[in-house]
Amino acid sequence: MKSAGVGRNITVWCLSLFFVAALFCALPETGALGQEMPSSVKVHTPGPSILSLAFEIAREEGFYQHEGVGVELVTMATGAGVQALIAGSVDASQILGLTLRAAINRGAALKIVMVFNDRPTYRLMARKDITSFADLKGKIVASSSPGASADALLQRLLEKRGLIPRKDLTIVYIGSSNITHRALVGGSVAAAVLVPPLDALAKESGFRELADFAKEDLGPFIGGGVSVSDKFLRERPDVMARFLRATWRALRVIKTNRKLSVAILSKFMNLPTDVAEKIYDGSVSAFTDYGFGSEEWQSRLLEFEVGRTDKALVQKTFDFSVVRKLK
């Protein structure tokens, strides 16, 4: 009787091992028991735009797959995305602008590791009856959020054209470019700062381009690209390097392959080809050739926007060690 009981126990134990093994074999490749595999990368983006095109090209053309990394794009507002990067909820962000650098200056352990564009892609779009900057007096202009790069450039532009922000006109902060576009089209604001493709869509709807920020002398600038947490840099350097290599290849496609770039832009943003062509042609010159800026450019940027610069601050803000090797 005793040996029969032992036999039954052994049988139950073997069956338990079988089911445990089967459970682990059935787990998805993205992770065991809900945890992500080390080769997965979560990337924050404020939403589809010309500045997220590199990520889409890298996915569409299999660059990430070739490097053995899985990339998930997570859409959040700029401020929320930077907070998620600080908290470790995402590994990387498209944001490089003043919101991110303000966090770095306050002690956040973040780094800028690739630059997509060192010239702004913003445009100030206005109603048909607004034919000059003087016509903005007493009007409402929509911007993204206080302290963001787009808002800083808007205020520089207004001052350059002889207007005092908040005195000569009202600036309202209503979030992403999608929302500011809706406010402009809906008639609740006289003008709005928009990014591609929304500036092109506004122009198609009859709105006027008052200014192309890239053509204005508004000082050194940094736009979209890749920022990461120091934790990601420190704990998964190989994954980060493979992710950056794939994204860098996509940036080179943007700079050298108009046909492919337009096709993917049209596809992922659901745009007619002619509109995608206008967006690409109006934006491609703002993109960097190889994804990084010189040390002199880094210093000038920080001096202009932060008011100071030194070697420690540059090293705290930038780390182009991976992309420099890819040139």
Give an overview in words:
With 327 residues, this protein is α/β, with parallel strands linked by helices. The chain has two domains: 40-119 and 221-324, Periplasmic binding protein-like II (D-Maltodextrin-Binding Protein, domain 2), CATH 3.40.190.10; 123-215, Periplasmic binding protein-like II (D-Maltodextrin-Binding Protein, domain 2, 3-Layer(aba) Sandwich). 48% of the residues lie in helices and 15% in strands. It is built from 15 helices and ten strands. The chain has helices at 2-26, 53-60, 63-67, 78-87, 98-105, 149-160, 177-186, 198-204, 230-235, 237-256, 258-268, 273-283, 295-306, 311-317, 321-324; strands at residues 40-45, 70-75, 92-95, 110-115, 123-126, 140-143, 170-173, 191-194, 208-212, 224-229. It has a five-stranded mixed beta sheet, sandwiched between helices. It has a five-stranded mixed beta sheet with strand order 7-6-8-5-9, with helices on both faces. α6 (149-160) links the parallel β6 (140-143) and β7. α2 (53-60) crosses α10 (237-256), α2 (53-60) packs across α11 (258-268) and α11 packs across α12 (273-283). It starts with a helix and ends with a helix. 40% of the residues are buried.
